[in-house]
Design goal:
homodimer, Mth169, Chain: A, phosphoribosylformylglycinamidine synthase activity (chains A, B), purine biosynthesis (chains A, B), alpha+beta, 30% helix
Chain lengths: 89, 89
């Protein structure tokens, strides 16, 4: 079992109201030093067996057709290594 | 200018209807070999100057108080290196 991650982010030229809302909230909460925030999506896909080039190509296709809107979003596909495999608290 | 990334994912024991919807859509679109999908959020924070330990601690605090709901979500904070700095198409 392996994990493939797809990160989907709004393109730089696209307005990102969610990110702007976070950016506006930070000073009110006493946080300083952050000049911009962009909010996107992260998908973690568990795939059967090893991650072959064929499977990666298939995930690229999923990212393009289902997980992102290529008009307004960019995406990145990568295999998550064991060492970094947990989003832990 | 440096970029700090915060990944926020639903905890493993928490139902993830968005991820389940994606998982259900994949076979209908002809994609096979994916056994589970989890959907979370990705925040890209641009910070002034170098990323100090103090700034990282501050971002951890932001993640805990504003960017995630610690009851149902885990988060990970890391500095994005130049090499991997673009979510490109």
């Amino acid at each position: 079992m392996a994990r493939v991650v797809v990160d989907v982010m709004p393109k730089p030229e696209i307005l990102d109201p969610q990110g702007k809302a976070v950016l506006g909230a930070l000073p009110r909460l006493g946080f300083e030093g952050v000049t911009d925030v962009r909010q996107g999506k992260r998908f973690e896909l568990e795939v059967e067996g090893e991650v072959t080039d064929e499977m990666l190509a298939s995930v690229e296709k999923m990212a393009e057709t289902l997980l992102s809107n290529p008009v307004i979003e960019n995406f990145a596909v990568y295999v998550e290594t064991e060492a970094a495999s947990e989003v832990a608290e």
